[in-house]
Amino acid sequence: MNKIEHIGIAVKDLKIANEVYTKLFGTPPYKTETVESENVSTSFFKVGESKVELLEATNPESAIAKFIEKKGEGVHHIAYAVDDIKAEMNRLKKEGFVILNDAPKRGADNKLVCFLHPKSTNGVLIELCQEIK
Ligand code: ZN
Predict the structure, then answer these.
(1) Are 99 and 120 in contact (CB under 8 A)?
(2) CA spacing 20 to 30 A to 82: which of 62, 101, 125, 130?
(3) What pLDDT does residue 1 have?
(4) In this structure, what are the phi and psi dihedrals at residue 77, rounded to the nearest 5 degrees?
């Protein structure tokens, strides 16, 4: 794993959260994107080398809606950049981590992504992401 690519934060209202984080960072999101397959709307802020992703559920079936229902708004996942997501998935599977998807899937911000179940990572949902070139 190369670096923390971004931190994902679950929010109830993306428009309001965008205003808060624009004030916080002094600069607006560089990208907003809806990922239909994940039932989320997202926005991305650059923070030096890293990014912050805000996620709002687009419908009640969204994992973000369920997360907020259970835990409220807050840090939802930490994403690490990898060069070869399939190789990392195989390596981590062998190490006993629970990977939530069998194959990498298309995520926001031009990435292939997969998630590790928090029960195998001390309560933190982890995303691996590989830039699509
Ligand atoms: Zn993410």
Answers:
(1) no
(2) 62
(3) 87
(4) -155, 160
Q: Which residue blocks in the chain are alpha helix, DSSP H?
A: 14-25, 63-71, 85-94
What is the distance in A from the centroid of ligand 1 to the CA of 107?
8
Q: Report CA(109)–ligand 1 centroid distance (Å).
A: 9
Task: Tell me the per-residue pLDDT of 83-109, one tens digit each, with 9 for 90 and over.
Answer: 999 999 999 999 999 999 999 998 888
Strand-pair category, 31-35 with 50-57: unpaired
Convert 100-127 into a string of H (helix), E (strand) and C (coil).
CCCCCEEECCCEEEEEECHHHCCCCCEE
- Token pair listed for 7: 């931190």
Q: For residue 4, what are the contacts with CB-CB under 8 A and spacing of at least 6?
A: 50, 78, 79, 80, 81
In the chain, what is the greatest distance between 2 CA atoms, to the nearest angstrom? 43
What is the model's pTM? Answer: 0.93
Tokens of 63: 């994992």
All residues with CB under 5 Å from ion ligand 1: 8, 53, 79, 127
How long a stretch of residues is the chain?
133
Backbone φ and ψ of 99, nearest 5°: -95, 130
